[in-house]
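Example complex used in Figure S2.
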Amino acid sequence: DGGITQSPKYLFRKEGQNVTLSCEQNLNHDAMYWYRQDPGQGLRLIYYSQIVNDFQKGDIAEGYSVSREKKESFPLTVTSAQKNPTAFYLCASSSGTRPGTDTQYFGPGTRLTVL
Amino acid sequence: GQQLNQSPQSMFIQEGEDVSMNCTSSSIFNTWLWYKQEPGEGPVLLIALYKAGELTSNGRLTAQFGITRKDSFLNISASIPSDVGIYFCAGTNFGNEKLTFGTGTRLTIIP
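Predicted assembly (226 residues):
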């Protein structure tokens, strides 16, 4: 089946540890995105990538890092520098780079809890 | 970054009732999108709007692009249990690589 997979669904980490969230898509999409969702807030863009080996910071990139070595994969690392990492993380992809016309398809999300 | 304001924040309605929610921005957008997110899942696109004043339907859902281009509205008619979830608006402009999302409206249906 075509789609976006994120793993794991739930992740627990101790404070001070880096953690990497996986995002894979088999839709052959060029663009991929990482969003953070907190209760009562909308989705906020962390990083996005329009093409392999290239990515741009979103609105809240501090404390996060990404890589785009393969078209189908866009892992997100939450570093110890992120002051409040507990959140629901959503990955999305789209065929093009124009969000108004190129529909973003979302994965099921990873809920990260830092203890 | 900017976030769009949605109201109401939450709604508790009975099955069969109609629902109205809106989204407002301090700046103009030329594209408005409406998404629905079910518990524990990612958002799914419901409706896209590209022209001021445009009215677009998707089944029982109808969305409107506000005349001022600073707001958008979503109506759900004759609500059913599977309408439960969080509804998000999002705005963008041509040439912009990013979406700006609203704060969401949580819809709960009372049995």
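The interface with chain A takes residues 1, 3-4, 6, 9, 30-31, 33, 40-45, 48, 50, 88, 90, 92-104 of chain B (CB under 8 Å). The radius of gyration of chain B is 13 Å.
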